[in-house]
Design brief:
This protein has one domain (2-86, 151-227): P-loop containing nucleotide triphosphate hydrolases (Rossmann fold), CATH 3.40.50.300. The chain contains nine helices and ten strands. The chain has helices at 40-48, 70-75, 93-98, 113-118, 120-124, 135-148, 165-181, 193-199, 222-227, and strands at residues 2-11, 14-24, 29-33, 55-60, 63-64, 78-81, 153-157, 185-189, 202-207, 210-216. The strands form two sheets. The chain has a six-stranded mixed β-sheet, sandwiched between helices. Strand 9 and strand 10 (210-216) form a beta hairpin. It is globular and about 45 Å long. The relative contact order is 0.20. The model has no long low-confidence stretch (mean pLDDT 94).
Amino acid sequence: MLSVESIDLFRGAAQALRGVSLQASPGRVTCVMGRNGVGKSSLLRAIVGHQAIAGGKIIWDDQEISTLAPHERARRGIGYVPQGREIFPLLTVRENLETGYAPVARGERFIPEDVLRLFPVLAEMMGRRGGDLSGGQQQQLAIGRALVTRPKLLVLDEPTEGIQPSIIKDIGRAIDYLRGKGGIAILLVEQYFEFARDLADDFAVMERGAIVLAGDKTSMVEKDVRRHLSV
C-alpha cells in the first residue's frame, strides 16, 4: 500500500503542497480531483520522485521512499504516466514500449499480453513512430509503456486530457480491468468528474495545495465535489 503522510512541497518560494495525506491500496482506484493549479500534479511528482518533499513521509510497501530517486522507485514497482504523455516521438511504438524494460529483470523484458489486449491499436502500429500517432493513441502508448514496467502502483496524471471520447472509454475499461486483477494500486488525477466518479473507489479533492474532501465512493457527495471543480 502507498501511504503519503503529511507531506509539504515547495516550488521556489511558493508552497505547492500543505500537509497532504493520502493512501492507495491494491485492487482499488484512488482519484485525486481539483481545479488547475491546486497541487494535483505536484503530489504525483512527489510520489514518483520527480520533486523533493520538504516535510512528511512517503511510504510504499512498508518502506519509506521519500529520498529515493525516480529510477529506484520504478524498480520498486511504481509506474508513472505523466500529464502530456511524454512519449518519444522519433522512436517507434515498439521502441517506446521497450523503454519500459529498464526497471525490470532480464527475464521479464518482453511486452506483456495485457498491453496489446487492452490497447490493440498498438499492436497494429508497432512500426509507426510515436509522433505519428494521434493524441489518444499516444496516451494509450504512455499507459502501455508504464504497464511494461510491471507496476504494483500505477500513477496516472489526467489520462483523459485532450482525448477523444471513444479512447476515454477504452482507457476507463483498461483501468477497470487492472483494478479487477487485484495486484495493482491505481492513483489517478482527473478533472473530468464523470470519469472519476465512475472509476473511483476512494477520492480526494484538493484546494490550494491541501486535501479538503476525502473518503470512499459511498461517502462522495457530488455537489460538494463539483463545487471544488468549477471555475
